[in-house]
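Q: Here's a chain of 178 amino acids. Please give me its 3D structure as tokens.
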Amino acid sequence: MSYTIENITNNDMDIVIGNTNASINIYFFGNYKCSFCTTFLKEDLPKILNQWNDKVKFTIKLIPYSNTKQESDALKMAIAVNKYGNYQPYHEVLLKDANIIFSNDFQDYLFEIMKYNEAIATFFNKDSLIENYLNENQKLLKKMGIKGTPTYIIGNKIIKGYISHNELTEIINNDIKQ
């Protein structure tokens, strides 16, 4: 089966930032180890959310960047924290320094999160469920002929590579006019 934009669906493991009922859904395929992804998430996404407030939601579909256990744990925890905790502080830790995932302090941080939130710990330990989700995100991009991150899908448009706040604003404006 070949994949098209119409095949992209929301999944309860997606990370949604912004108004969940917004009329414009921007799918963002990315990873915290991708410097262009983190630039967008740190600098441009807050501007977009401030500017478009209730009209835009970002559906983040995380993509594995490497096959390390540390990265796998970081992505699994991102999904678990988003589902059963407060995602923003975790998100900010990863945005500050993506290489933190290789530190003992980060491993301690993961254990602390699980220690104080049983739902997160239980979900985090459902390895195959989360890994299947991450692999499906990666396969989806590959089947659409996309090889890298960040990738944005807005309406029927696929945008490969980093775009700035201004470029995205122009695309959103055009999408609203149609």
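Q: Can you summarize the key feature?
A: Helices lie at 35-52, 69-84, 87-96, 104-116, 118-124, 127-143, 165-177.
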